[in-house]
């Protein structure tokens, strides 16, 4: 029989597991491990996470409350699609919040973070050349979050992360559903390089222009590929 050590709170163990499962699923959504329109089940998620249904159910409940996923039945959930209007609103919010964080990073970002940005962008380029779409999405998310954390407050970063709960699955669905996705993301790595140059020169306007182009070109690419019916195009994938 396992004995509780003096001062040890055994109730903290399941709480820590619940939090770990929640944070892992949240990160997977932000990184694009799940596609917009994809159906998720407690059984499949539990198997993938190597845990029981209970912590997964609690994590999913929290993600439903954050509107990162929607509940379709007792054990099935769906990563929501975005309508064209929702896409437009998401892009506007991202442009406002993310360019603010990126501009704030100028003059504040440290050498280690700059090296991380360079390495992440190089990795993303290599992953695209190797047709590793999943890896490229993860590197892209890590690049953006490394940039934003250098300039964002905790409150601002929380808001950006909430947007990426909707953005990550959408990027994944588009990259896998539409032709030319790897080529488009290759252009994004060039804009990432321009962001890095702006940071090195402490030129906030240059950083903002490059990031705006990155976000706006991606949104325009969605619209072009889907002929204005983004959600319908992804739903048919």
Q: Can you put this structure into words, describing what you see?
A:
By secondary structure, this protein is mainly alpha-helical. 73% of the residues lie in helices and 3% in strands. The chain has 10 helices and 3 strands. The chain has helices at residues 12-31, 42-49, 53-65, 84-105, 111-129, 133-149, 154-177, 181-200, 204-226, 230-235; strands at residues 39-41, 70-71, 76-78. The chain has a 3-stranded antiparallel sheet. Helix 5 (111-129) packs antiparallel against helix 8. The termini are far apart.
What's this model, at a glance?
With 237 residues, the chain is mainly alpha-helical.
Main β sheet profile: 3 strands, antiparallel
Please report which band the strand proportion falls in: under 5%, 5-15%, 15-25%, 25-35%, 35-45% or over 45%: under 5%
Please give the alpha-carbon distance between the first and last residues: 51 Å
Count the beta strands: 3
- Write down the Rg: 19 Å
Strand order of the largest sheet: 1-3-2
What are the secondary-structure elements, in order, as H or E? HEHHEEHHHHHHH
Question: Which ranges are low-confidence, i.e. pLDDT below 50, for 5 or more consecutive residues?
Answer: 1-11, 228-237
Mean pLDDT: 86
Helix content: over 70%
Please state the overall shape, judged from the principal axes of the Cα atoms.
globular
Oligomer: single chain
Total count of helical runs of at least 4 residues: 10
């Amino acid at each position: 029989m396992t004995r509780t050590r003096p001062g040890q709170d055994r109730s903290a163990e399941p709480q820590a597991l619940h939090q770990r499962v929640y944070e892992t699923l949240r990160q997977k959504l932000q990184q694009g491990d799940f596609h917009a329109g994809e159906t998720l089940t407690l059984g499949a998620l539990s198997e993938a996470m190597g845990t029981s249904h209970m912590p997964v159910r609690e994590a999913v409940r929290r993600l439903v409350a954050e509107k990162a996923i929607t509940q379709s039945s007792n054990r099935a959930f769906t990563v929501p699609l975005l309508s064209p209007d929702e896409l437009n609103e998401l892009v506007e919010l991202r442009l406002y919040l993310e360019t603010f964080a990126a501009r704030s990073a100028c003059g504040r970002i440290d050498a280690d973070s700059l090296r991380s940005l360079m390495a992440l962008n190089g990795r993303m380029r290599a992953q695209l050349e190797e047709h590793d779409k999943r890896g490229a999405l993860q590197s892209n998310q890590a690049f953006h979050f490394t940039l934003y954390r250098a300039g964002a407050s905790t409150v601002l970063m929380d808001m950006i992360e909430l947007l990426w709960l909707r953005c990550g699955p959408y990027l994944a669905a588009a990259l896998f559903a539409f032709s030319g996705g790897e080529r488009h993301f290759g252009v994004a790595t060039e804009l990432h390089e321009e962001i890095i140059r702006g940071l090195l020169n402490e030129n906030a306007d240059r950083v903002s222009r490059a990031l705006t182009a990155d976000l706006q070109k991606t949104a325009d690419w969605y619209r072009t590929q889907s002929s204005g019916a983004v959600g319908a195009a992804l739903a048919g994938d």
